[in-house]
């Protein structure tokens, strides 16, 4: 006798709640069909469901996301870096207190040795016919952030060496819920013959029909739940083994939205608007934002970041502010709308010659016009870089292109090419190759859990003090 096991999964929603009612529609219809046929199924999320760029998530610190997962009937969830490092230790500790599903993450540990009661390293599930499945959850090891928040994320290899051996003795099938990215997933598949399925995320890769590596099928459904994934496993009870592993993703962007979920989100939005409606300041005239020109509010914010981090200099890109600040009452909701990014300040060590190279690169047309999605950035383009503690003198070539003529410290002294400077900026630039010298700096000091928008609020209060 053969038995089919069905797993539906989502990954990397990033609080794209406009899409979420379609997710619910698809899951309801699919699970209803399986139930009518008597086919066992589970629903799974692979992390980064939470993203504080959305006001509902911001106002609830992710608890609204957990409620949505509960109401959608999820069975198993692991956490992503957006759940793990964008909220305080206490907020994460209590994030899943009301979860109706099981939270699995084997490599996350509280450094105070008091683990959240909801946190499980592995979970075993079983079909009515006795097929046993072992689930392992793993999240990406952003320990430069996690350890500042009193968490630690262990190496996935260290964890898998332990738990794969344990599960091999007690289950028939091993599934890894991996918020680690496609490259790591492929390495896990090559390294562990006993792993049957890796359901992935984090790097927003879309595998339409799965990828087969060694004995495992690897799958992932892109980002923002434009797709939902499905894994189908066929177990032969006579041979006592898996005889088929399939993985598919389905585009759900055309589906009707679930009415009940729409109503829930509408109510959540009203509550979020109320919670974020507190007045921060009142201003008499609008504060304009221009992504490609020096703007006073961005200069003020850059100055605040320099002073707050006690750095020698600071640099922030204009694209961090998505819109101008209107005259009148400015609320936390306004600040969140204008600066939605889950981006922390960071101070990096740069030699003088590296700092000059970073400044030159940041003032090129290519850099300013670069469209970016990811690394915490939720805007459109990077925009022009603003500086504090530095006097950057520019000039123009005959073709109109701007170039850096010279860079001085605010006291008028030239930059010493061999001297080490402490430079504050957005943590976005410590990832990837946007500004290689920043990303490669041997010393990075992140400031958590404060986001740049918290410093924007501080800047506005200082600029417009109440009487």
Automatic annotation (TrEMBL):
GO process annotations (BP): nucleotide catabolic process
The Calcineurin-like phosphoesterase domain is annotated at 8-205
Which GO terms label this protein's molecular function in UniProt? hydrolase activity; nucleotide binding
According to the record, the signal peptide region is: none
Keywords assigned by UniProt, alphabetized: Hydrolase, Nucleotide-binding, Signal
Q: Domain 5'-Nucleotidase C-terminal: where?
A: 289-428
Going by the entry's taxonomy, the superkingdom of the source organism is recorded as Bacteria
The family database entries (InterPro entries) matched by this protein are listed as:
5'-Nucleotdase_C, 5'-Nucleotdase_C_sf, 5_nucleotidase/apyrase, Calcineurin-like_PHP, Metallo-depent_PP-like, Pesterase_YunD
**Family statement:** Belongs to the 5'-nucleotidase family.
* PANTHER family in alphabetical order: 5'-NUCLEOTIDASE, 5'-NUCLEOTIDASE-RELATED
Task: Specify the protein name.
Answer: 2',3'-cyclic-nucleotide 2'-phosphodiesterase (5'-nucleotidase family)
